[in-house]
Amino acid sequence: MSAKKILVIEDDQRIAQLLTRGLTNKGFEIEVAYNGTLGLRRAESIDFDLIILDINLPEMNGFEVCKSIRSFKPNLPILMLTAMSEIEDKIEGFESGADDYIVKPFDFRELYHRVLVALRHNNPEPESLGNIVRIADLEIFLDSKLVKRAGQEIRLTAREYDFLLFLVRNQGRIISKPEIATNVWDIHFDTGTNVIEVYINILRRKIDKGFEPKLIHTRPGLGYMIRESA
User: Fold this and answer.
1) DSSP secondary structure string for all residues of 147-167
2) What angle do CA 149, 210, 220 make, to 5 degrees?
3) E strands within the chain?
4) 95: helix, coil or strand?
5) Contact of 135 with 171, CB cutoff 8 Å
6) Strands (E), 109-230
7) How far apart are CA 205 and CA 166, in angstroms?
8) Using one digit for the tens of pLDDT, what is the confidence trace for 35-44?
9) CA distance 46 to 182
10) Which of 59, 106, 107, 212 to pair with 144, CA 20 to 30 A apart?
C-alpha cells in the first residue's frame, strides 16, 4: 500500500521541519508549502490525503485557503495548526471548513493521533448502495455521503457529516459529550474544550436554520439529541 500523502502549509520553517521529520518517520509522504498561495496551488494540482494548515500565512491566510480547498475538494481532511487560540478563531476555522483545530504549542503525539483519526474518518467502511438514513425531511445518503433537507443539498465537512450521522443514528436519545467525543473524535472528552458546542452550532446553522421542525436539541447538563419535536 502506498504511503498517505500530507501537504503541510506552514511558513515557520522550524515547525515545518519538525512535522516533516516526525510524520515521515511514521510512514507518511510529506510536501511543504511556505505560503498560502503556493499551498492552494499544490492542493489543486496534487491528490493529497490530508492537509495540515497554518492560519497566519504570507500572501493568503489559512481561512481563505481552507474555503478555497473546500470548493473543489469538499471531503479532503484539513487540520488547522495555529497559535490563534481564541474561540472566535476556532469558530472561523471550523466554519471555513476545517475538520480539526490544534493550537500551538502542540504535542506531536496528539497531532499524530488526530491525523490518524482524520484519515480513518475519511476512509469509512463501504456502505451498500442506496442506503439512506432519514429523520423528518432530513436525508443522509450513506453511499455518497450526500445530505439533503427538504430536497436541498447541505454541504458538510467530513467531521460535520460524521457528527450528524452519529446523532441521527441515535435519534430520540440524549447523547453525552463524552460519548460524542469517543464516537466522533475517537478521543476522551476534555472538559476544557468547547469543540462539541462549536460543531453543534455549525450543524444547527446548516441543518435547522430556515427549516421546520428544528431537529437538534440541547438538554442542559446532559447532552444533545436529534428528534422531530422538542
Assistant:
1) EEETTEE----HHHHHHHHHH
2) 90
3) 5-9, 29-33, 50-53, 78-82, 100-103, 132-135, 138-141, 146-149, 152-153, 216-219, 223-226
4) helix
5) yes
6) 132-135, 138-141, 146-149, 152-153, 216-219, 223-226
7) 18
8) 999 999 999 9
9) 32
10) 212
- The per-type count for the chain, helices as H runs and strands as E runs, is 8, 11
Q: Which amino acid is at 66?
A: C
Note if the bond before 105 is cis, omega within 30 degrees. Answer: yes
Q: Which three cell numbers stand for residue 92?
A: 472561523
Other beta carbons less than 10 A from residue 143's beta carbon: 12
Looking up cell 499551498, which residue turns up? Answer: 39
Mode of pairing for the β-strands spanning 152-153 and 78-82: unpaired
Count of residues in the chain: 230
**Residue 175 per-residue DSSP state:** B
For residue 132, give the 3-state DSSP assignment: strand
State residue 128's pLDDT score: 40
Place of cell 504535542: 107
Residue 198 cell numbers, joined: 462549536
Q: Contact, 213 vs 136, CB < 8 A? A: yes
**pLDDT score of 187 more than 70:** no
Per residue in 39-78, pLDDT tens? 999 999 999 999 999 999 999 999 999 999 998 888 889 9
